[in-house]
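Dissemination and training. As part of the outreach component of the grant, students in the summer workshop were shown how a complex can be specified as a set of sequence lines and then modelled as a single object. The example used during the hands-on session is reproduced here so that future cohorts can follow it. Participants entered these lines:
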Amino acid sequence: DTGVSQDPRHKITKRGQNVTFRCDPISEHNRLYWYRQTLGQGPEFLTYFQNEAQLEKSRLLSDRFSAERPKGSFSTLEIQRTEQGDSAMYLCASSLGTGSSRDEQYFGPGTRLTVT
Amino acid sequence: DAKTTQPPSMDCAEGRAANLPCNHSTISGNEYVYWYRQIHSQGPQYIIHGLKNNETNEMASLIITEDRKSSTLILPHATLRDTAVYYCIVRSNTGKLIFGQGTTLQVKP
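and obtained this result:
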């Protein structure tokens, strides 16, 4: 049973560096979501893709953040010029994207980013 | 997007039913109520969802009031492994999930 996978699981970087995270969704899932979670808070929506199209971006996604999903398969989330406030758990989720009621999202284990 | 209100924490004795309440008074007619839980340092796990009718699966039951302004998640026989943060979410039409701070459920032996 292959669930959502994320790589790396942990990343420590120095302020000002660029980082890139990868998410591999469940096979045949058309929708892919990115969320961010800081300590003690619930996950916050960042952006989502329907196949390769990025359909919605949160205002939390500043211009230092960019996400891609080439060919509608895996996705990458890049953060440029990292700041200490970017330290968080970055979660990826995928769903069938059928638009029906049975469209639950399945989450990966997350990438924990620490900016020093 | 509809917001939800949950108690910050609850305790439950192992083997007893855990009843987790949620208020979503601003929910729209076509918005679904979803429940997820998150065990420490893991990604959220889907539990159950519903629109109007009560729902049951192998993990839990979901009771939605007739006016849809509140719901209750029921774990029929709580175990220590059910200790987690439980999120009640009203899913937006675009599919994104708007999480609140959830309820921390502590199951005690």
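Chain A has a mean pLDDT of 93. Students were then asked to discuss how this feature might be tested experimentally.
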